[in-house]
């Protein structure tokens, strides 16, 4: 300190320049001395850290980054949940490469020393499959321009896969869709989600799928994990379908943390102009978790629902969008109705106008063993003209104008599908019949 004070300003500027301090001309002498001292301290700490890293054993690591409020982060090695094998990511690495929560990072870590709780990350190899320098210049998800879905995700995979064929026709899904699957208990919503997941996986190897299960039974989670990835390349880790789950025996905060991590993960893909589909079961239970954990506003809606509790779920659901210039985030979420809980009905009412696609399942059809139990009258997609051809639109209009009841409509629809090999033949048959 004394040596620096004795030096002239010109000499201090030369020292600062050698240390890599920028804009040195704007600093006074005392400010420059403080900056030089701080830079020397940083270099000493870096040297000490490098020496420690050189001493420890190194190993390859990967995981999904979660950045905590204090500025440091962890690579979550057990999908999205914290564990003993997580890798510590120092703030310096996060700032250097502009890393974000949800990034899939591969790099090199050092074995933890006696005083370390976690092994630290010392080198970043790639971020979401690309070089760190390229990832540095990513746009912010919030700055991207949302537009209506204009590219259809075709679910049709075979003659006897009626659920997928009916959705393609009655309530088509586009890249960037924000859809609700409205269901009473035991109407077949879980089976429908599985059918949608399998169809997208089979037809589109460029779409990333994340299945998010909130407040589900543990055995159902296991069933989903074993069900997915039949058509995915086992060597392409980035594009394999992920199942993220927070089961009913975990606290509500766990449900919220899981949902927020999944959303951040999906946003990172969209920022790189990739297409993502999140299948959420269910948004009702996610809203219930927020209702428990959100500080009370003092106002209560019918059923004991706090208005502030809906902010988090709406931010999640509202993130679904098609991006102008490439990339999309589609969210298909199940909403529970007629459960006997007034709160569940209120949650659905609050979300009813926020989506741009709805599929309604009818318990009465399911009780009569009519599957898929899709209510044709209530199911639809906004701006379906952007997703369907003129022939398809014509057939949809003709079917909706028919005087048949919902049960008659779905039974006749399935009967026609049994007589045709594809939706193209099916649409031609409808246009000829009406």
Automatic annotation (TrEMBL):
Keyword Translocase attributed: no
Keyword match Iron-sulfur:
no
Q: Its Enzyme Commission number?
A: 3.6.4.-
Positions of the Rho RNA-BD domain: 58-131
- Which ranges does the record mark as transmembrane? none
Keywords attached to this entry: ATP-binding, Helicase, Hydrolase, Nucleotide-binding, RNA-binding, Transcription, Transcription regulation, Transcription termination
Know the name of this protein? Transcription termination factor Rho
Native organism: Anaerococcus prevotii ACS-065-V-Col13
Q: What is the name of the gene encoding this protein?
A: rho
